[in-house]
Amino acid sequence: MPDGPPPEELHLSQRPAVTEPIPGPRSSDLLERQAASEANTVAYPLSLPVAIDSARGATIKDVDGNVFLDFSAGIGVANVGHSNPYVVEAAKEQLDAVAHTIDFPTEARLAFIDALDSIAPGTLPGNSRIAFGGPTGTNAIEASIKLAKYNTGRSGIVGFDRGYHGGTMGALSLSGWSSYKSDYTPLLPDVAHVPYPTPRDGETPDAALEATLEEVRAVVSGRASGLDEPPAGIWVEPIQGSGGVIVPPEGFLAELAEITAAHDVLLIVDEIQTGMGRTGEWFASDHAGITPDAMTVGKAIGGVGLPLSATVYREELDTWGPSAHAGTFRGHVPAMVAGTRAIEYIDEYDLLDRATRVGSYLQDRFREMQQDCPSLVDVRGRGLLIGAEFRDADGSPLPDVVESIQTRCLRRGLVVWTAGIEGHVLRLLPPLVLTDEQARVGMDIVQDVVETVTEETADGR
Q1: Could you tell me which of 75, 27, 80, 59 has the C-alpha nearest to residue 417?
Q2: Residues 60 and 103 in one domain
């Protein structure tokens, strides 16, 4: 049994405590120094102007002493909470011994491989291979592209509209966001995109699903998309996170698996944001009962934010040779120790069930708001990955409303994030250790802010 504290004892507080302006004087100083020296690629402080001093569980403390409830978990990284002692202490012990081992075997590395294999979806446990390459999820995507091309001998790759897979050239090529890609073309050739099954303009979920599947059938059979032959693989997020927390209709992944298998096309499921218990199962693929040919994992697998990613795939696809996918930091053993400890902690404290139960509460609170907030047009998600979509009466996205909600929540001591190409979706992905009290307090803040902002918008203020 983990000897670390139970989830309710991990946090700095059960409620926020904002005593200084946002940003406070010390945060302002650090933000200014950062802006003067770091690249323009810095993004998060533009929306959340604070400088972080420390974090515990589902709480963050800034350098001015303000304490925030964290409903973003470092964008899905801190699933077992910030600085979870059960995870951190083991990582420190490993750091004292050795940190960098490239890909030489260590007990810690093999223990993590076994732990990750044991929770893999479908029939992958006992029938998988794991490739480490680099520290971020986009490295795992790059590995999966190489894996698919090598095993099939084909060059075409297929992603979904509004999908997001990372910032390197292969991952950008797969992503369906033109705003991320337009300044960096040309990207990879032989790339096609098909619509994610999202009902539009009164379309039923079943109709949206069938339309998507028909396009997929055309692409994999070589009848459409501009590819000269069937593709090497199809990459899919089981829930589109950055794209707006889009949950596909029931049966989508299962149908996709059948189509790809029938045409000898690999199905690669991107579990970078949805993995490690985020949706109430170890991986979102588990909800559909499928076995992907490969899956990419990152974010939370490093336990408490230590950088680590991997590509997990069927054993029979392990046909490539030494250094086929390499990387200097594929031996970050403290992160592997942290990953093993995180899996143990999630299992011991049944955080999959907690994610399901607390996530249902958060969605219920949003649905209560819908009764008096016509611009809150949809609430969706699984477990502790939740999106609330805002549009005006004409159906136009309301990114300014969501931005205002995020800003005002921060002033009240609550960190939330956004999603969607238009930025009109409020996204919640708190740590799985979020307590019932924190969930209630946080949603009280969200409800109060949403009511205020939408009333002001309706009044034209």
Answers
A1: 75
A2: no
